[in-house]
Design a protein that fits this description.
The chain is about 30% helix and about 15% strand. It has helices at about 80-95, 130-135, 140-160, 210-215, 225-240, 250-255, 270-280, 290-295, 295-300; strands at about 35, 45-50, 55-60, 70-75, 105-110, 115-120, 160-165, 170-175, 180, 190. The strands form 3 sheets. A 6-stranded antiparallel β-sheet has the order 1-2-3-4-6-5, with helices on one face. Strand 5 (about 105-110) and strand 6 form a beta hairpin. The radius of gyration is 20 Å and the shape is globular. The two termini are about 30 Å apart. Bound molecules: adenosine-5'-diphosphate. Adenosine-5'-diphosphate binds next to strand 2, strand 4 and strand 6.
C-alpha cells in the first residue's frame, strides 16, 4: 500500500509533483479504556484496535447498549497548526452531513483534553485492500458488485457537491454483509460555487488523476473521482494498480503518459478492458459520467451477483 499524499500548502509546478511524506512520528499514548464526552451522555468502552492512517488511530468500541462501533481518534498534539485543525473540521463537516447506505455512517463527534473522537459505523470486514491481499484478485462479477455500490455512493456525494479525492481500495470498507462503505473523508472537498476548481495537490500516488498533478493552473473537479474508479476497477480485476512501480516519481510519469497495460497472462474481458480504457482518459472532459459507467456492457451484459458470500474473503465465489 502506498503512503497517502496529504494536501500541500504551496502549489507545485508540473515538473515537481508531490512526494510521500516521511513517517517520523512516534506512537501517541492510547486513549482511555472508557471514552466519554464532556457531558457524560456518550460513553464507549474501547475493546480493540482496528488500524491507523495518516492522522488518526481507529479503535473498536462498544456503546452502553453493547453495540459495536469504530472510533477514530486524533490526538490534540497533532492539531497544533491552524491548517491541521481546519482539515479535521472540514473532514467532520463533510462526513457528518452525508447519509447513504454505501458511506460509512458518521455517528458522533466530541473531545476530551487529549483527543478528538469520531464514532463511526463499524466495518467488520476491514477494507477491500485487506481482502485483496488474501484473494490476490477478484472475479469480474465481484468487481461489478463492489463498483455499483461505490458508484452509488459517488453519485450521492457528487450531487451533494462533495469530491472525495482519495477513493482507493484502502478507503472502501466492507460491512458484515460484504457491502461497500466509502470512508475516510480526510481529503474530501466541498464545491461551494458551481464551476469552482480545486487546486490542492492531494490523493494517493497510484490513484491520482493526471490533472491534479499536471494541470495545477486549471485545477481539478469531480472527474478526479471518476479516474480513481477506473484505477479501482483495474486493480480489482488485475490485482495491482495500473501505474504501479517502485518509485513514486515514475508512477507520476506513467500517469502523465497514460502508460499502463493489461497483463497477457490473465483473462480480463474485452468489456472490462474497454471500460477501464474509457475511464482512464487523460482529458477529464472525455471521461464517462457515473451513469455512463453503469450503462456500459461490462455491467449490463455480465453476471451481477445479488450478494457476495463471506466465504469470498478467502475463496473466489462461483456465481454461475
Ligand atoms: P486516516 O484518515 O488517518 O487515513 P482512516 O480513516 O483511513 O484514517 O483509518 C485508518 C484505518 O482504520 C483503516 O485503514 C482501517 O483499517 C481502520 N478503519 C477506519 N475506519 C474504520 C471503520 N469504520 N470500521 C473498521 N475499520 C476502520
Amino acid at each position: 500500500q502506498t503512503t497517502p499524499q496529504k494536501p500541500q500548502k504551496k502549489q507545485k509546478q508540473p515538473g515537481s509533483p508531490p512526494l510521500p511524506r516521511q513517517n517520523t512520528k512516534t506512537a501517541p499514548p492510547s486513549p482511555p479504556r472508557v471514552i466519554s464526552d464532556p457531558t457524560g451522555h456518550l460513553q464507549f468502552h474501547r475493546v480493540g484496535f482496528l488500524g491507523e492512517g495518516g492522522f488518526a488511530r481507529v479503535y473498536e468500541v462498544k456503546d452502553t447498549r453493547g453495540a459495536r462501533l469504530a472510533c477514530k481518534v486524533v490526538t490534540k498534539s497533532s492539531l497544533v497548526t491552524k491548517k491541521a485543525k481546519t482539515k479535521l473540521y472540514a473532514e467532520i463537516k463533510i462526513h457528518r452531513a452525508l447519509e447513504h447506505p454505501n458511506i460509512v455512517d458518521f455517528r458522533d463527534c466530541f473531545e476530551d483534553d487529549d483527543n478528538v473522537y469520531m464514532t463511526l459505523e463499524l466495518c467488520v470486514n476491514g477494507s477491500i485492500t485487506d481482502m485483496l491481499r488474501r484473494r490476490r484478485l477478484f472475479t469480474e462479477p465481484e468487481a461489478r458488485f463492489f463498483l455499483v455500490q461505490l458508484i452509488g455512493a459517488c453519485q450521492y456525494m457528487h450531487t451533494h457537491q462533495v469530491i472525495h479525492r482519495d477513493l482507493k481500495l484502502g478507503n472502501l470498507f466492507l460491512d458484515g454483509h460484504m457491502n461497500v462503505k466509502v470512508g475516510d473523508f480526510g481529503l474530501a472537498a466541498l464545491i461551494e460555487n458551481p464551476g469552482e476548481r480545486k487546486k490542492t495537490i492531494c490523493g494517493t500516488p497510484n490513484y491520482i488523476a493526471p490533472e491534479v498533478l499536471f494541470d495545477t493552473a486549471n485545477g481539478h473537479s469531480f472527474e478526479v473521482d471518476i479516474w480513481s474508479i477506473g484505477v479501482i476497477l483495474y486493480t480489482l480485476v488485475v490485482g495491482r494498480p495500473p501505474f504501479q512501480t517502485k518509485d513514486v516519481k515514475a508512477i507520476y510519469e506513467r500517469i502523465r503518459d497514460n502508460q499502463y497495460e493489461f497483463p497477457a497472462d490473465r483473462p480480463i474481458s474485452a468489456y472490462a478492458q474497454e471500460l477501464i480504457q474509457s475511464i482512464l482518459a487523460s482529458n477529464p472532459q472525455m471521461r464517462p459520467s457515473l451513469l455512463d459507467i453503469v450503462d456500459h456492457p461490462f455491467f449490463t451484459r455480465g453476471i451481477f451477483p445479488p450478494y457476495i458470500p463471506s466465504s469470498a474473503y478467502d475463496i473466489p465465489p462461483n456465481f454461475r
